[in-house]
Design a protein that fits this description.
Elements: E1 4-7, E2 12-15, E3 23-28, H1 39-57, E4 61-66, H2 84-92, H3 96-113, H4 129-141, E5 145-148, E6 151-154, H5 170-175, E7 191-196, E8 212-214, H6 216-228, E9 232-238, H7 242-257, E10 262-268, E11 271-273, E12 276-277, H8 288-294, H9 297-305, E13 313-315, H10 317-343, H11 353-369, H12 374-393, H13 400-417, H14 433-452, H15 456-468, E14 471-476, E15 479-484
The structure holds one RNA strand of 76 nucleotides.
Length: 486
RNA sequence: GGCGGCAUCGCCAAGUGGACUAAGGCCACGGUUUGCAAAACCGUUAUCCUGGGUUCGAAUCCCAGUGCCGCCUCCA
């Protein structure tokens, strides 16, 4: 068994081996913080979060870097648009720095809600201007970049391997169906490394070529080199960034360093909404904050993971509702397990229990090894639940140790690796619990007496009323349990 | 126009040459359990877009067709 990744560069699944044994360097293209994060961000970052979690589970020491783009991302790729940050700051009448702060916080807030582990380093482009300038100087010195009217461009023709990731041919690029001719460039496909700041442009830094600001592609090269070295193990990002962003990163980095930039390129697929591409211009944009009003963040996470990261994900209410119910099913089992655990005693081990647990664990790991097949991995969790439910309902005494070990399996696979099983379920949440628990205890005791006396009308009345306030009762052979529902 | 991807049960979605008489979830129906429920369990539901081909053997490979989608503007 070995972990395999589909490498976009070679277009093949490959067994993963890190450059340095036991350590993995991972860079994922982070957000441009000019708006609230949307469900597309969620798919991308949940996907890579699970990859990071799994690598760590396998025992690798992972350094996970994910940038925050706070300058240089233009509104189009022809190097002629406005800076997104500047544009949006003007619209919202705030300082660019303020805007960046607002949306960076919003970003982390939503990622935290999705239970993504924070990157080890979240470097900002504006905090790495010297590193970027240094890289530029190196590229100019080596003849890959040229200065033109205070801007610096990368001369694509000089880098023979340009196109190796995206499959674009040099000639096609120059034919440039939609690239506007920029007279400052030697060739239409050359891309900006550094842009001259026009008078009145707010975000500007001093450079050997006058005041300006860095191009979007440059930051990722500079920052990944700084924190992860000249060759990194994994670079991740959305499919749509293969061209031009990642192609440009390769060109800059490899031209500067004369060695491979990335060993495994991993790209996640896109989100559609009701079968349609999600885009700003189409107006079918769903922010996470909006999605969370309707669905729990972990439902969104679970939903994302039911599809493979390289497949497109269609976001629809029906699909989310189905995911939510499925997740609820998993949670029910876990809650019952935890309740049972609370009063379990030492006792016997059900026959073959440990063989079964081992079997499921193995199946789960095999799924994850196969290019992070979370869909299969989740199916394994449902298989486990089926068996555990049967066991819990069997009426047999189960030793505490066994219950703990079952629970540990869930925590490891569903909790640590997939991040869909929290330590405390919503239905178990504290807060008002002490009071609530007491009141519920009273109600359940009362109702229990009523049921003994076959006062069905009254006992059903209590149950229905509780349901109205979002609490469901389940009468089990060994007593009544309650839980909050959504 | 160039490049790439996808098409599997009512819906979502794994599987990419042989344990597939195709996983898992949702929905539906029947049953067990229950005072009735809930939860849970059991059962029922597909030959894999179409047509050719390769192979002892294909959902899985090749060719053609049809349909959908993405990138080359915005966007993870």
């Amino acid at each position: 068994m070995a972990l395999k990744f589909y490498n976009s560069l070679t277009k093949k699944k490959e067994i993963f081996t890190p450059l340095h044994e036991g350590r993995v360097t991972l860079y994922v293209c982070g957000p441009t913080v000019y708006d609230h994060p949307h469900i597309g961000h969620a798919k991308s970052y949940v996907s890579f979060d699970v990859i990071v979690r799994y690598l760590r589970y396998l025992g690798y020491k992972v350094r996970y870097v994910q940038n925050i783009t706070d300058v240089g991302h233009l509104t189009d790729n022809a190097d002629t648009g406005e800076d997104k940050i500047v544009k949006r700051a003007q619209r919202e009448h705030v300082e660019p720095a303020e805007l960046v702060e607002i949306y960076t916080r919003s970003y982390f807030e939503d990622m935290d809600a999705l239970n993504n582990v924070r990157p080890d380093i979240s470097p900002r482009a504006t905090a790495h201007i010297p590193e970027q300038i240094e890289l530029l100087e190196k590229l100019i010195e080596k003849g890959y970049a040229y200065v033109s009217h205070g801007s610096v461009y990368f001369e694509v023709q000089k880098f023979k391997e340009y196109g190796k990731l995206s499959g674009r041919k040099q000639e096609e690029l120059d034919a440039g169906a939609r690239i506007e001719i920029n007279p400052e460039k030697r060739n239409p496909s050359d891309f900006a490394l550094w842009k001259r700041a026009e008078p009145g442009h707010i975000m500007r830094w001093k450079s050997p070529w006058g005041e300006g600001f860095p191009g979007w592609h440059l930051e990722c090269s500079a920052m990944s080199m700084k924190y992860l070295g000249q060759t990194i193990d994994i670079h991740g990002g959305g499919l749509e960034n293969i061209f031009p962003h990642h192609e440009c990163e390769i060109a800059q980095s490899e031209a500067a360093n004369n060695q491979p930039f990335v060993r495994y390129w991993i790209h996640n697929n896109m989100v559609t909404v009701n079968g349609q591409k999600m885009g700003k211009s189409l107006g079918n944009f769903i922010t996470l904050k909006d999605a969370f009003k309707k669905y729990r963040p972990l439902t969104v996470r679970f939903f994302i993971l039911t599809t493979h990261y390289r497949s497109p994900l269609d976001f629809s209410n029906e699909a989310l509702d189905a995911a939510d119910k499925g997740l609820e099913r998993l949670y029910n089992t876990i809650q019952h397990l935890r309740e049972r655990l609370a009063y379990a005693q030492d006792g016997s081990t059900p026959p073959h229990l440990y063989e079964r647990l081992e079997h499921y664990k193995k199946a789960f790991i095999e799924a994850m090894d196969e290019d992070i097949n979370t869909s299969d991995a989740i199916a394994v969790l449902f298989d486990v639940s089926k068996e555990v439910n049967t066991l819990l309902n069997s009426g047999e005494e189960i030793g505490k140790k066994c219950l703990e070990d079952i629970h540990a399996l869930y925590q490891q696979l569903g909790g640590d690796i997939l991040g869909i099983i929290p330590d405390v379920l919503e239905s178990e949440q504290k807060g008002e619990t002490d009071t609530l628990k007491n009141i519920m205890g009273m109600l359940i005791d009362t109702r229990c007496e009523l049921r003994k006396a076959k006062q069905w009308q009254l006992s059903d009345f209590i149950r229905n009323k509780l349901l109205e306030v979002g609490i469901t009762l389940e009468d089990k052979p060994d007593g009544t349990v309650w839980r909050k529902i959504k």
